[in-house]
Amino acid sequence: MLNLLESSRVDASTVPPHVPAQHVIPYDLLCASAEHDDPFIVMNSLRERGRVLYTPVHFSSAVGAWVLTRAEDIRYVLQNPQLFSSRGVSGFSKLLGESWDMIPLELDPPRHSAFRAVLNPLMAPARILQLQDQIRASCIELIETMRKGKDCDFMAAFARPFPVRIFLHLMGLPQELFDQFLKWNGALLFSDSLQQRVAAAAAIRDYLRGLIAQRKQTPVDDFVSAAVRAQIGGETITDDEILGICYLLFVGGLDTVAASLGFYFRYLAGHPDQQRRLRENPALIPDAVEELLRVYSVVMVSRFVTQDLELAGVQMKRGDCIAIYTTFASFDPLDTPQPERVDFGRSPNRHIAFSYGPHRCLGSHLARRELVIALQECLQRLPEFHLAPGQDVTMHGGVVFSVDRLPIAW
Questions:
Q1: pLDDT the model gives residue 3
Q2: Where are the domains of the chain?
């Protein structure tokens, strides 16, 4: 592990003078794993280095970010937006030299609360229940294609296409756009080329602006039409605000579910006893999903300090960035008994895989439903699967931890 971290060493000369040297870890946490290494193991190995750390590299801040390793500190930051702001945390509009917000992700109360009141019903359990048949049908179609062979790269065959299909349905878009959307998403989130990221960000923006204009002229029963009709304080929201809503749905809806599925199926492929248990007791699957959400909390979120303050004994300055890796909360032994144990019957399960506080994930009900249905149908329709011998599983860390390639066989 030390060799891996040493390979991620970065220049620490940009660390601000108010950051004590003993808190600095000179590693790029956005590249928290080498190609074949588990980013969760890498990140959790840092816990012993301290309660509050500092990394010189962060995508939202040129001078790095504080990193919290205790669940209580993470919850405190996420629940106090007056001290820790979400404005500008994604940086996608900045890529284009623009200033629109990803909504509601990059809004603070009270504006954030006003938008959540409008958007929550669009992602409420009752609304997601209406999508359940379509979710299951898309899932089954992909599985039936997989079953024609005896092995596959699970990421390419199922994990990535599954949420994209649901997104297209939610947005009222034809499935013919599947390949293009997947290409844009990959370039935006995973390309090492800034030019490719900017091009993808612009292409997504242009497409969504065109779609918004189309829905204004001819509304249908979809998410975009609902956003176009939305009002805040009796006033129709602006085109930039509609764009911010749709852009967040694009980024969040296509990547996090795919990333989660990759880690879940990697775990089940490597633990045949646990896989068999779920096959024999499918009623356990919803609780198993909750535990896998905890064990594989894939998302990093950020906040900016709004005033000079002290947190966990460390002095922070206004404008400092805090990188919140949800996996640190999931594996805090002071918060979760025996966190390293994967317990499908864990209760209570206080994970924050969908964040915490006012910014708790808007799409959590949809994500849960997709994950549960994926496990239900795959375990029912596929024979017992295992990691394909002689082939590599590749993963990466970053803003969203993910599996790049998952060869399985049955």
A1: 45
A2: 63-409
Average pLDDT in the chain: 90
Whole-prediction pTM value? 0.93
HEC assignment per residue over the chain: CHHHHHCCECCCCCCCCCCCHHHECCECHHHCCCCCCCHHHHHHCCHHHCCEEEECCECCECCCEEEECCHHHHHHHHCCCCCEECCCCCCHHHHCCCCCCCCCCCCCCCHHHHHHHHHHHHHCHHHHHHHHHHHHHHHHHHHHHHCCCCEEEHHHHHHCHHHHHHHHHHCCCCHHHHHHHHHHHHHHHHCCCHHHHHHHHHHHHHHHHHHHHHHHHCCCCCHHHHHHHCEECCEECCHHHHHHHHHHHHHHHHHHHHHHHHHHHHHHHHCHHHHHHHHHCHHHHHHHHHHHHHHCCCEEEEEEECCCEEECCEEECCCCEEEEEHHHHHCCCCCCCCCCCCCCCCCCCCCCCCCCHHHCCCCHHHHHHHHHHHHHHHHHHCCCCEECCCCCCEEECCCECEEEECEEEC
At the second CATH level, the architecture of 63-409 is: Orthogonal Bundle (1.10)
pLDDT tens-digit series, residues 198-231: 999 999 999 999 999 999 999 998 889 999 999 9
